[in-house]
Design goal:
- The protein is mostly helical.
- Among the domains are: about 55 residues, no CATH class; about 60 residues, no CATH class; about 35 residues, no CATH class.
- About 30% of the residues lie in helices and about 0% in strands.
- The chain has nine helices and no strands.
- The longest helix is centred in the last third of the chain and has 43 residues.
- The radius of gyration is 41 Å and the shape is flat.
- One of its GO terms (biological process) is mRNA processing.
- Belongs to the CPSF4/YTH1 family.
- Keywords: Metal-binding, mRNA processing, Nucleus, Repeat, RNA-binding, Zinc, Zinc-finger.
- It holds the Pfam family zf-CCCH_3.
Length: about 325
C-alpha cells in the first residue's frame, strides 16, 4: 500500500548523485598508495576514468577470477596492478592448500575452495571417439557410457537432455602454434598433470612438492647422464694436459711439475733480498728472519745515510 500511495522510485537525493559522479574525490598525492579499503571506481570499467593512477578508488579488471590470498591477510603490495582479485568472493577463492595436498582439511570454517581431485581430470577425447592407445595408463579419464541409438541414426528428439551419450567424433582443436613471420611450428608446452598450456609438469603449481620433485628427477635424468659423460671426458682431457705439462717441466729441470715456469737461473746469479748475498733464494736464507741485520752490517754507510734521511724528514 505504501508503494502505491507514496512511491519513491523516481526520487533521487543529491548525495546519491554526488557519490555516483565522485564529486569531491581528491586525487592521490602520489601513485602506488594502498587502496585496498577504498570503494570501486564506477568509471574505470566504462573506460571513462580520467584520473588514472591518481584515482582514489580501486580499478578492478574483469579478467581476474581468483581472489588474492595475500590481500585476504592485508599483505598485498601490488594494489591495482595485482593479477588477482581484491574482492571477497567465496566462489572465486583460491584452492585450499591442505585439501589439495593431503585430501583433508580440519578447519571447519576454511574460506578456501575444496576441489575434488577427481574433478580435475578431463575426459579422454580419444576414448570418447572409440579408442585410446594409452589404455589404462592414460592420464585422462575413461568413462564408459551408453550410446544413444537415435543420435547415431541421425536425430535425437531429447537433444541435450537425453540420458544416453551423444558422441563427438572430432578431436579438440589444436592451438595456433604457427609463427606468421617464419611459418615454423612453435613448441607448445602442455602440462601432463593439469592439461594446461604454457608450463611443464615439473613446474605445475597444482602438484604437491613431492610430485614436482619426482617429475623433475624423471625429466632431468637424461641431462644428468649426458653431463656425467662430459665430465668424465673433461677429466681425461685435463689429466693428459697435466701429464704433458709435467713432462715439459721435468725436461727443464722442474721436478715438482704442475705449471710450466721455464728454465731457472743458476744459483750464482740469484740474489737473496733478505741478506743481499748471492747463491740462494730468500725462502732458503740460512740467516733466517734476522738476515736484514747482516745486510746492514755489510753496507753501514748506506744504512747510516738512510737513518739520517729519515731523521731529516721527521724534522
Amino acid at each position: 500500500m505504501e508503494l502505491i500511495v507514496a512511491s519513491v522510485e523516481g526520487v533521487k537525493f543529491d548525495i546519491e548523485t554526488a557519490l555516483e559522479e565522485q564529486y569531491g574525490a581528491l586525487p592521490l598525492p602520489f601513485p602506488g598508495m594502498d587502496k585496498s579499503i577504498a570503494a570501486v571506481c564506477t568509471f574505470y570499467p566504462k573506460g571513462t576514468c580520467l584520473k588514472g593512477a591518481a584515482c582514489p578508488f580501486r580499478h578492478i579488471r574483469g579478467d581476474r577470477t581468483i581472489v588474492c590470498k595475500h590481500w585476504l591477510r592485508g599483505l598485498c603490495k601490488k594494489g591495482d596492478q595485482c593479477e588477482f582479485l581484491h574482492e571477497y568472493d567465496m566462489s572465486k577463492m583460491p584452492e585450499c592448500y591442505f585439501y589439495s595436498r593431503f585430501n583433508a582439511c580440519h578447519n571447519k570454517e576454511c574460506p578456501f575452495l575444496h576441489i575434488d581431485p577427481e574433478s580435475k581430470i578431463r575426459d579422454c577425447p580419444w576414448y570418447d571417439r572409440g579408442f585410446c592407445r594409452h589404455g589404462p595408463h592414460c592420464r585422462h579419464r575413461h568413462v564408459r557410457r551408453v550410446l544413444c541409438m537415435n543420435y547415431l541414426a541421425g536425430f535425437c528428439p531429447d537433444g541435450p537432455e537425453c540420458k544416453f551419450m551423444h558422441p563427438r567424433f572430432e578431436l579438440p582443436a589444436p592451438t595456433d602454434n604457427t609463427n606468421q613471420n617464419t611459418n615454423k611450428v612453435k613448441a607448445v608446452l602442455v602440462c601432463h598433470y593439469c592439461n594446461e598450456y604454457g608450463h611443464k609438469a615439473m613446474y605445475c603449481l597444482k602438484m604437491t612438492p613431492e610430485q614436482r620433485a619426482e617429475q623433475a628427477r624423471i625429466e632431468n635424468e637424461p641431462f644428468f647422464k649426458k653431463f656425467t659423460m662430459q665430465t668424465k671426458i673433461g677429466k681425461m682431457y685435463m689429466s693428459q694436459i697435466i701429464a704433458q705439462t709435467r713432462n715439459v717441466d721435468g725436461a727443464n729441470g722442474d721436478k715438482k711439475g704442475g705449471i710450466f715456469r721455464g728454465p731457472h737461473k743458476p744459483l750464482d746469479e740469484v740474489t737473496c733480498y733478505k741478506c743481499g748475498l748471492k747463491g740462494h733464494y730468500a725462502n732458503r736464507c740460512p740467516k733466517g728472519h734476522l738476515a736484514f741485520l747482516s745486510k746492514a752490517q755489510q753496507n753501514p754507510s748506506s744504512f747510516s745515510n738512510n737513518s739520517e734521511n729519515q731523521s731529516n724528514n721527521a724534522n
